[in-house]
Amino acid sequence: MTDTHGADDARTPPPATGSPDRAADALPLDLDGTLLERMGIELGELTAARATGRMPVAGNTQPAGLLHGGASVVLAETLGSIAAQLHGGRTRAAVGIEINATHHRAVRQGWVHGEARALHTGRTTVSYEIVVSDDDGRRVCTARLTCMLLDVP
Fold this sequence. Notes:
The protein is an alpha+beta fold. It has a single domain (18-151), classed as Roll (Thiol Ester Dehydrase, Chain A). The chain is 16% helix and 37% strand. A six-stranded antiparallel β-sheet has the order 1-2-4-5-6-3. Strand 5 and strand 6 (139-151) form a beta hairpin.
């Protein structure tokens, strides 16, 4: 397969994130060869309460040239799952048990930006609302993700 995310200049990385927001550095997150890498997802602030990231529209479209709805859901689940894993820590594994999404508007170019915010952080389940917006800050998709926290054997 070829990389279809557009020209390199279209993938300018987000501003550097300071260490207080990089709680994920404490967890081993190997992103090589993952769907995140394939979709061009770039992670921003990562904490148990809030996770942010962005994804290029180029390469993640349906045949009509619009951002694929499934791509928005991939971004949403990625951010919510990472935040859930941060809540669970090294002794728990966060596994998705439910996700839903409402698509509000189409996007044809640029980037979409996601922000996951904790709704519930319990001992065995966590839930996040994830808002995906376009470069102008307009809401593209609203998703809700629930993960179960399982003990790591």
